[in-house]
């Protein structure tokens, strides 16, 4: 039995959980690099019976799965993975298992990005490292407007922290009601007012047909020229081309981003080098506790499948 663990960028998969129940019965191969080319990916995965994917780092669409006749199981970290073609796995009789997770790390990173962007922490840290001193004037968040786009498990927690910072927390999403917003400690605003009101706009929606490109040219144009946009959800929710244009033109003040249309972000992408962008490499869930849950549950799921319980 051959098992592949994909995209273990930090090379921690085998040390984060006890893999003995699996390694005693199967050969496990860990890949630390990422392959985006479909043909190269298929060639790599062809010898494996089981593939473990880390969230959506490596998508498994129909044109990949159908070319892997040996594949019998996919273990995916997190409670869901929209980048796996579940219809194709069902047709092929491939068992797909998911794991638990934790949203706290993404909530915490959201606030790290908000505070880092508001107080220019990267610029000021570099000034100190270069032998300099104060170079910018930061912005205070107290009594500013925090716009939360989506009040689910993550957005609601982000909203509560905004309230603790003394911010005026407003929220909008397609199905949000004023009553639900109030229960999460936010004030509902209709769409036509929401984007214009936010001093900090933070995105917390699931990616789907309704949310793809939801923050587009019109929404960015409606925002204040002093506003910051923060996205720790999924890159395609924000129209990337429109965002780059808004940053270049100064129609918004800056962005703090953990997610992108293409990941890893291409080396020559403008979001890597724009002065008003604080960018991190999709690390919202990359923390000790979520990783322990991910790999523990993956071991349990693979072991159960080897036992014929899948």
From TrEMBL:
Transmembrane segments: none annotated. The keyword RNA-binding does not apply. The keyword Transcription does not apply. Residues 26-307 form the D-isomer specific 2-hydroxyacid dehydrogenase catalytic domain. GO terms for biological process: amino acid biosynthetic process. One of its GO terms (molecular function) is oxidoreductase activity, acting on the CH-OH group of donors, NAD or NADP as acceptor. InterPro entries: D-2-hydroxyacid_DH (IPR050857), D-isomer_2_OHA_DH_cat_dom (IPR006139), D-isomer_DH_CS (IPR029753), D-isomer_DH_CS1 (IPR029752), D-isomer_DH_NAD-bd (IPR006140), NAD(P)-bd_dom_sf (IPR036291). Keywords: Amino-acid biosynthesis, NAD, Oxidoreductase. It holds the Pfam family 2-Hacid_dh. Residues 112-284 form the D-isomer specific 2-hydroxyacid dehydrogenase NAD-binding domain. It comes from the Bacteria. CDD domains: PGDH_like_1. Belongs to the D-isomer specific 2-hydroxyacid dehydrogenase family. This is D-2-hydroxyacid dehydrogenase family protein.
